[in-house]
Model the fold of this input.
Amino acid sequence: MRTDAVRYAQGEMALVVHRNYCKGCGICVADCPEKILALDEHQVAVVTAIGRCVFCGICAVRCPDFAIAIDRPAPRWTAPSHDPGGMACA
Amino acid sequence: MSLAHPETLPHGILPPEAVRLFTEVKPPLADDAVALEADRCLVCGGPTAPAPCAAACPAMVDVPRFIDAIAHDDWEGAAELIFASNLLGASCARVCPTEELCEGACVLTAQGRRPVEIGRLQRYATDQALHNPWSTFRTPARPTGKRIAVIGAGPAGLVCAGELAILGHAVRIYEARSDSGGLVRHAIAPYRLDQEPLEDEVQRILALGVELYLGRPVDSPEALRRIEAEADAIFLGVGMGADVDQPYPGDHLPGVWNSLDFIEAIKLRHMTGIGRRVAVIGGGNTAIDVAREAVRLGAEDVVLLYRRSEAEMPAYHFEVEGARAEGVRFEWLTNPLSFVGESHLSGVICQRMRLGEPDASGRARPVPQPGSEFLLPVDTVVRAIGQKPRLEFLRWVDGLELRNGRPAVDPATGQTSNPRYFAGGDVLNGGGTVVEAVRAAKIAALGIDAFVRPFERQAAS
Done:
C-alpha cells in the first residue's frame, strides 16, 4: 500500500513521509519546533532541512493521517552495562 | 501529596503560604511523579542534530539518554551518564538555571507546553546513586606519574581535580578554607541547595585519589613557588574575592550586610532576626537570592533597590518573576546614598535615577536626579553588587596576562599566558553558574592532560 513514501535520512535515522496519506493540513508544519517542515506545490509535507531534525517525533504524533513516521533503528536506552553485584570496573 | 496531571503542576514558583525557610524551591519528585515526568520526554536527538536540551547544557550531559534510562527504571545507568559528563551532577541538578538552559530549550516549550523537569529528574537519578554505596562511579586510569596542583576547592577545582585523577594524574588541591566546595557550600542560597549532596560528591571525587589540603591558603608568592616546584601544571580555580566594598556613609551600622556573609550566616544557622523591613541593593541573581531568602526569614517587606530599570537587570527574568510572586517589591532607578541609624540601622537614604547614554557595558548609564532623595525605613540592608577579582594573588603568577582583572586563556584548553598555568570558573567569568565552572574545569582538565603528556598522546593516535 505505502508505495509513495519519501525517506529523509540523517545518518542511520530517518523521517519518512507517506505522501499519499498526506492531505496537507499543515499541523506538522506549524508544530515542528525546528521549523524544518513545509508543504510543497502539491500541498504535501516535505522536510526542508533534515540535518537539523532532532527527531522529537512531534510531527509523527500529531499527524492525523499517520503520514509521518520516524525510522529509528535502535532504541536510545540499552540494558544496564554495570555489574549488578556492585563490583564496578571501568 | 496528590498527584496532579503533570501538565498542570506549577513550575518553580511556590504560592506565598508555601514559602518557608529552608524549604527548597524545587523539592524532589515523588517516585510516581518521576515515572510520569520521564515518560513525557520525547527522547530527541538525531545522528547530526543533538537534542536541544543536551546542546544547551554547558556540561554536555546527554539529557535524553539519561531520562530514557530513568523511564526504563534504570536510575543507575542514568546516574552513570550524568556523572560521566558532570562530577557535580547532583549539585547542579539543584542549582542550575534550568529554565535558561536545558528546560528552556525543551521542544515541548515550542508547543506552549511545560518542559520536562530535567533538573528534578537529574536530582532523582544522582540522589539514588549517591545514597547507594555500591552504585557505579567513574574510576581512575593507570597512573601517569604526572603531578597537578589545583588551587581552590570550589566547583571548578573539584571537577578539574576529579577529571585529572580519572585521567591518571596525581592531583593535590590546596584550599584556604577549612572545608571544600567553595561558594557551592557557602554562598548558594539554602532554598536552592542546602549542602546535602555536596559532601557525597566531594567524597566520591576524593575516592578517585585526589589529595585535598584544607586550611592551606596560598598567601604569599613563596607559597605559590613551593606549589609550582612540586607540580607539572597548576589549575587556578580561585574564584573571585570578597564582595565589592563600595563605601557608603553609615555602613558600619549593625544591620548592614554583604551578600556573601548574609547567605553564609543563613546556611550556618547563625542568622538571628533580620527585622520586618529589608532592603537589598543590586540587580543580579545574588540580589534576588538574598531577597527571596529574606522573605523566607520572615521579613514582611522586602524591597530590591536597583539603579537601572527592570530591562537592564542582569538577573534571570524567571528569577525576578519568582521573587515578585513571593512578595518582593522592586524599586527601579533607585540608588542608595547612605545608611542612617543610631545604634542600629534604621533607614536608607535613596536617590531616584534616570537612564542616560549607554556606558562601556552597553547598558544605559543611570544618571542621578537631584532633589529626588528620600528615606526608606528598613531594619536590614544587604549589599549584593558583585565580588572583587583576586588581583593581588593573580599578580604573583609569572607572566600571567590579565584582561579586565581576569586571566586571559585559550578557550579551547583553559591555558593562560604562563603555559604551566590553567584556569577556570569564576576567576575567568567574573562570577557565573556552577555548571559554567564545571564546563571550564573539564576543558582545562583536557588542556592540562594534553600539556603534560603530549608525546604519549601523539604515539597513541
